[in-house]
Amino acid sequence: MIQLDFEKTGGLIPAIVQDMKTAEVLMLAYMNQEAFERTVQTKKATYYSRSRRTLWVKGETSGHVQHVHEILVDCDLDTLVLKVEQVGGAACHKGYKSCFFRAVQGGELKTIDQKVFDPEKVYR
Predict the structure, then answer these.
(1) Distance (Å, rounded) from C-alpha 40 to C-alpha 58?
(2) Count of structural domains within the chain
(3) What is the CA radius of gyration of the chain?
(4) Which stretch of DSSP H or E encloses residue 25?
(5) CATH number for position 27
(6) Would 7 be classed as within a structural domain?
(7) Is 123 within the bounds of a domain?
(8) How far is 51 from 59, CA to CA, in rounded Å?
């Protein structure tokens, strides 16, 4: 198995997730060794939830699965870029395509995207 440097950052490494066709950044999540290994084996994005302290497969609840097509590793072996096919059109649990749906404009946060789904209906 590939030896990434999980120890440098306390057991978790950041995973930047991009749409494989457009290169749009969809989200940032974290992986531990087990999440990384499962992602490599299953080709479905699996992350480590820092708040719940457990593994989670993206889309388990919403159906918005991420099929991993390529994994890039940085020079220090402690950061990943996942190029994914985002099923369902949304990566964000708040209903947007990307978790980066707000921009700083004039010192304020402005929503710059439209919701793809209603989270109230998806996450009951």
Answers:
(1) 14
(2) 1
(3) 15
(4) strand 25-31
(5) 3.10.20.810
(6) no
(7) no
(8) 17
Query: How high is the mean pLDDT in each 10-residue block of the chain (124 residues)?
Result: 90 98 98 98 97 95 95 97 96 96 97 94 84
Tokens of 13: 């490494």
For residues 115 and 5, give the distance between their C-alpha atoms in angstroms, rounded to a whole number: 36
| pLDDT of 124 | 75
For the four alpha carbons of 94, 96, 101 and 102, in that order, the dihedral sign comes to negative
43 Ramachandran zone, left/alpha/beta (phi>0; psi -120 to 50): left
Secondary structure (3-state) at 10: coil
Domain contains 5: no
Q: How far is CA 119 from CA 32, 33, 90, 124, in A?
A: 27, 30, 11, 8
Q: Which amino acid is at 15?
A: A
21 lies in some domain:
yes
**Domain residue limits at 50:** 13-118
Beta bridge partners of 18: 25, 83
N-to-C CA span, the chain: 38
- In 3D, which of 107, 82, 76 has the Cα closest to residue 25? 82
Q: What is the pLDDT of residue 2?
A: 85
